[in-house]
Amino acid sequence: MNIAILGYGVVGSGVVEVINTNKESINMRAGREINIKHVLDLRKFPGDPIEDILTDDFDKIINDDDVDIIVEVMGGLEPAYTFVKQALEKGKSVVTSNKELVAKYGAGLLQLAKENSTNFLFEASVGGGIPIIRPLNESLTADEIYEITGILNGTTNFILTKMEEEGRPFEEVLKEAQELGYAEADPEADVEGHDACRKIAILSSLAFARQVNFEEIPTEGITKVSKGDMEYASKMGYTIKLLGRCKRKGKEIFASVSPVMIPLEHPLAPVKDVFNAILIKGNVIGEVMFYGKGAGKLPTASAVVADIVEAAKHKGINIISHWSKEKVEMMEAGKIPASYFVRVQKKDGVKEIIEDTFLGVKWVENEDYPEELAFITQEDEEDLQKDRFEKLKDHAYVISSINIEG
Amino acid sequence: MNIAILGYGVVGSGVVEVINTNKESINMRAGREINIKHVLDLRKFPGDPIEDILTDDFDKIINDDDVDIIVEVMGGLEPAYTFVKQALEKGKSVVTSNKELVAKYGAGLLQLAKENSTNFLFEASVGGGIPIIRPLNESLTADEIYEITGILNGTTNFILTKMEEEGRPFEEVLKEAQELGYAEADPEADVEGHDACRKIAILSSLAFARQVNFEEIPTEGITKVSKGDMEYASKMGYTIKLLGRCKRKGKEIFASVSPVMIPLEHPLAPVKDVFNAILIKGNVIGEVMFYGKGAGKLPTASAVVADIVEAAKHKGINIISHWSKEKVEMMEAGKIPASYFVRVQKKDGVKEIIEDTFLGVKWVENEDYPEELAFITQEDEEDLQKDRFEKLKDHAYVISSINIEG
To answer: Residue A294: its pLDDT value, please?
Structure first.
């Protein structure tokens, strides 16, 4: 079974490393020998063991009838999309770690794979090495899933963990994460929540078997989370995590990405550093959680190679997945239920205004911040909460507000 | 697609309930309608909706060519084994939740399914609703797994959690668990570790693709865990869990079931009450953990029904599993590395004897137990540790000893 790897970056070189390291057991599991025939990259890698099979010409790969499986680990939408489409049309299996590609074109590419009796597999696109795509497709099939909550981005979880444990501000920890290679030079995709947003869109699409557009998911990153917020959280027995969330409410679905205060007893609270975890609730299974390293060269490569093994075991047989292009009915952003933890500057009369505006709040004491009032609102529709914040801002300075889950 | 359910007990009636509750989505996932054609039980269920399809005659089922899938949820070795074998020989798929059956005959039944181009599926035999069998078979295939550690029994985890949180002794909490229906009238299989032993044998066999005999796994239950041990654990920042463990060391494997003190930072420490979790370490993925309800009617039925969906999707196509009858090379029990937490009655000269015997220990202070000496041993081979305990007992009264990790 011959494979071609598109892209010899971190994940691509990891795939080569994993296949070489565990050759014997991988071939046993696949039931045949996995042979890397081509590696596509525009760069040169003089002296690298793959030098002899390196090419910059995709046509050579797509026209090689001996290539059964294409491994797309280049990232980005183009030319990845064009290459993947061509491969599936030729009946080759495709394995990818590319979440942008999957979030945007997943439904169509699965359909194309089905039409060509081949497979489009993307375990590595969410949660790095954590098996989550295959369990959703093949293990949780007895359930109606009604909620998914995940820590889906390792970089931001590392930053929040450091902020909490070392009492340091966001900017300082971000810099350290960049130095350690945990955050990119341009950290926007991670810290603004775009990466988590694509991942929760993919998980929701699979759970509900229909298209959830990532563009329609309200997304907020962690840049506004302050040292003070963290201190309040600790004092209250909470922690702050960047959560991708998706819930079914009646016929509608709502999804969001934002920092959320969760109690320490929450199953996601102990998930620290670069680890990811995904909590799924189903109407018969109750709750299940999947936990592991959500990023990194080898964990991601592990998921890619497991997909290669699946593809090898299913040559010519489409593995049925359910993710149609038909759109899920999404709840309007303004109707999504939300409750907030809020810090306000103390001033005469503000307490009464808060109680009148928010119709019942839970006050939070923190003697380290004597100049502040802090409270937790009831849960209500986002639009109504927004109005209340507008009203409050006419009378007081709102220091920060953050989603809270009870 | 017609199914027959063997056994209308807790799990069997759960399977009927799940199929009825989620009919629409289950049929969508299976790609065809799942119809319950027979239920086998020697008892009568007057007034029950399944009354019309109830039979006490297995021959009627095995000779019905319209039955595609047999769901064995009777438990016990016989007649379950005979029925399952006959079904596979007839080319019917078999789904089971029966861990005794799987631990003892799994390798042979998988082989038989392969020979007959059908499937033998047993997701529900370990970890109730938690997807763990399919991830091991199909998702963690890029890795060489070198360690599995699991909280595999809900009853004992419930008892240990209550003992810890409420400071109550084992016997008292066991009685409560029985009243709540979490423990059987005859609790031996749970509290003596036999249930966990079969489950770790199944997981290890799949991870190493060869037979691990449950009879060869040293197994100790939780009956000797005392209130005092729990208090020491809390004070030390540890908790006590009944762990099924399996590790690869070189070419050899060793496995065990016993109560173990683990630090609160351990990923399994927050797993409480009837929840189960399985932590797997692979040489490329690092560590992954699967968490959820390990028992109970609906979670277990969820796993059974997910297997029915898989069987329906793979009619006539064997899903490749790797678990040969060839035995894994097991390390002698006496060579297994172990460290202990030990409590000894204070007496003149005992401290010196302990230090001489155990060649370096870590002393543990606990002012609540002024009449005791407590210490942690270094890790060493079980046989050597046993000799040391024998020697110590000549000079002092050993109150308790318990495995400790990490």
So the answer is: 86
- The residue length of chain B stands at 406
Tell me whether residues A144 and B22 touch, CB distance under 8 A. Answer: yes
C-alpha A256/C-alpha A269 separation (Å) is 18
- Which residue type does A209 have? A
Q: How far is CA A331 from the centre of its chain?
A: 21
Cβ burial B148-166 (10 Å sphere, 16+ → b, else e):
bbbbbbbbbbbbbbbbbee
Two structure tokens written together for A256: 């969001």
Instruction: Quick: pLDDT tens for B59-117.
Output: 999 999 999 999 999 999 999 999 999 999 999 999 999 999 999 999 999 999 999 99
Residue A313 is nearest to which of B28, B286, B320, comparing CB atoms? B320
- Contact residues, chain A, for B321 at CB < 8 Å: none
Residues contacting B393, CB < 8 A, separation 6+: none
Residue A234 has pLDDT above 90, yes or no: yes
Nearest to A292 among B30, B288, B309 (CB): B288
Q: Which of B15, B16, B130, B138 to mutate to test the interface with A (most CBs of A within 10 A)?
A: B138
Class of domain A2-128+297-320: alpha beta
Q: State which H helix or E strand residue A83 sits in.
A: helix A80-89
For B277, half-sphere exposure in the C-beta direction (CA atoms, 13 angstrom radius) is: 23
Mean pLDDT, residues A135-156 taken together? 97
The 10s digit of each residue's pLDDT in B217-227 is: 999 999 999 99
Q: Measure CB to CB from residue A129 to each of B131, B286, B305 and give the nearest one.
A: B286
Q: What is the pLDDT of residue B109?
A: 98
Domain ranges of chain B: 2-128+297-323, 135-293, 334-404
- Give the residue with greater pLDDT, B372 vs B295: B372
Q: Using a pLDDT cut of 90, give the percent of chain A over it.
A: 96
Catalytically annotated residues of A: 199
Residue B361, φ and ψ in degrees, nearest 5: -130, 165
For position B294, what pLDDT does the model report? Answer: 86
What is the rounded distance in angstroms from the CA atom of residue B112 to the CA atom of residue B131? 24
Is domain A135-293 classified as CATH 3.30.360.10?
Answer: yes
Indicate the CATH number of B334-404 among 3.90.1570.10, 3.40.190.10, 3.40.50.2300, 3.30.70.1150.
3.30.70.1150
Helices A99-115, A194-208: crossing angle, 10 deg rounding:
30
- Exposure class string for B191-223: b at 16+ Cβ within 10 A, else e: bbbbbbbbbbbbbbbbbbbbbbebebbbbbbbb
DSSP string covering B29-66, please? Answer: HHTS--EEEEEE-SS--TT-TTGGGEES-HHHHHT-TT
For residue A406, pLDDT over 80 is answered with no
Q: Mean pLDDT across the stretch A211-223?
A: 97
- Which residues of chain A have a CB within 8 Å of the CB of B130? 288
**B250/chain A closest Cα distance in angstroms:** 15
Judge whether B393 counts as a catalytic residue: no
- Region B2-128+297-323: CATH code: 3.40.50.720
ipTM of the complex: 0.94
Q: At what angle do helices B10-21 and B297-313 cross, to 10 degrees?
A: 60
